[in-house]
Amino acid sequence: xxxxxxxxxxxxxxxxxxxxxxxxxxxxxxxxxxxxxxxxxxxxxxxxxxxxxxxxxxxxxxxxxxxxxxxxxxxxxxxxxxxxxxxxxxxxxxxxxxxxxxxxxxxxxxxxxxxxxxxxxxxxxxxxxxxxxxxxxxxxxxxxxxxxxxxxxxxxxxxxxxxxxxxxxxxxxxxxxxxxxxxxxxxxxxxxxxxxxxxxxxxxxxxxxxxxxxxxxxxxxxxxxxxxxxxxxxxxxxxxxxxxxxxxxxxxxxxxxxxxxxxxxxxxxxxxxxxxxxxxxxxxxxxxxxxxxxxxxxxxxxxxxxxxxxxxxxxxxxxxxxxxxxxxxxxxxxxxxxxxxxxxxxxxxxxxxxxxxxxxxxxxxxxxxxxxxxxxxxxxxxxxxxxxxxxxxxxxxxxxxxxxxxxxxxxxxxxxxxxxxxxxxxxxxxxxxxxxxxxxxxxxxxxxxxxxxxxxxxxxxxxxxxxxxxxxxxxxxxxxxxxxxxxxxxxxxxxxxxxxxxxxxxxxxx
Length: 510
Prior knowledge:
Layout: E1 2-7, E2 40-47, E3 69-70, E4 82-89, E5 103-109, E6 117-118, E7 126-131, E8 137-142, E9 147-152, E10 159-163, E11 165-171, E12 178-184, E13 193-194, E14 196-201, E15 204-212, E16 217-218, E17 223-224, E18 230-234, E19 239-244, E20 249-255, E21 257-261, E22 268-272, E23 278-283, E24 289-293, E25 304-310, E26 316-323, E27 340-346, E28 353-358, E29 366-373, E30 401-407, H1 416-419, E31 425-438, E32 445-454, E33 457-458, E34 470-476, E35 487-491, E36 499-502
Parallel strand pairs: 31-35, 32-36
Antiparallel strand pairs: 1-2, 3-28, 4-5, 4-29, 5-6, 7-8, 8-9, 9-10, 11-12, 12-14, 13-16, 14-15, 17-18, 18-19, 19-20, 21-22, 22-23, 23-24, 25-26, 26-27, 27-28, 30-31, 30-34, 31-32, 32-33, 34-36
């Protein structure tokens, strides 16, 4: 049995705060909105693990096996055997970061016919559930206990692993031992960071060792490479890079969030962009990099997605989305019942998502997923040939265009509070193209991003009234690497419009 502290009810409000704020701090930070104590208001409550056949089922459609849906003419893989875990918010629907205690720990096996099932019989602040490499155990954290637990896939064998926050589970290829990587000694940063990482043997958690203490790492982005020598990490947010676990050194590869490391042999790393729509993949040996959209699936409509994670198979990733409600500047905080778990499948070149499988179908938002694919049920893609045609960042068209344009709508600027914890922000608006002065632009309507927030302050004169005639020097947004980790607020009615960057706004005056 585990004991779930019952917090004072005022702290429930923390579930609507901005991303990545630790609720076990003595003060709940509400992004400058409010604060409250997290003391225990009621006695600890015994929480039994679910019996193997007795976990509460959630009503889902009769066909519970996710079917990959191809995008356009892209190929879809045959149905792999999927196991998926996640958290479900049965409270106000906004607890995407597991700050409150109205979350259920959920699981789904595409081949057992049980559908979406509850793993534990009580709600708690379950966070970042992970599936062990052999697919037979679930490792999860309870934020308000600052503790990591494991439970067998069938709902038995619940046991405490360690104090801290669970970061990853990795199997040593030499002997098959499975290790749980735990962030310890949490620092009160936003988002929370961990000065050290200790790993525990899953079979006997008393066997442990410190594997990283060279630089604090954020909790949601630590993923160990297949050989165990490297890990993706935020060092800490927003610095995205790779930690060398053998030498204790690290290197920065970009700025963003939700870093991940491929479980395959090829040393691929990614980081998520500030628009919450794309990942930039980097080959850490060759330094080749390219961007992949993870929001162009038929279920997303170009809206933001979140919680991206590489699964145990190099061709598959898992995300939640779409995020379509809530504050326009940061829809992630709005959550909403439309947020579901989706598994995406890379094509053979890792340059696009060829198909998506929707895993969950219910009336509650689902967050923090991990997915496991049974060996042999999803073909390994051919190794990408060195030098093959790939749409790399460096290869993209960076030619600019000068155009006379007019904003189509009046839009209120986002505030620094609304984009926190980001301190730099851009706003993308729709523009009618009136005249092309120099270069080539063949569409009548475009989206253009310009700076509106710098160093946590609104930029004077950043408003763009509808109808104002502007002459702008524009470059393709995706070609500007320096923008990848910045918050981008999309205020357009059509999220598929070509997106450009207003170069002149790059020298903001707050």
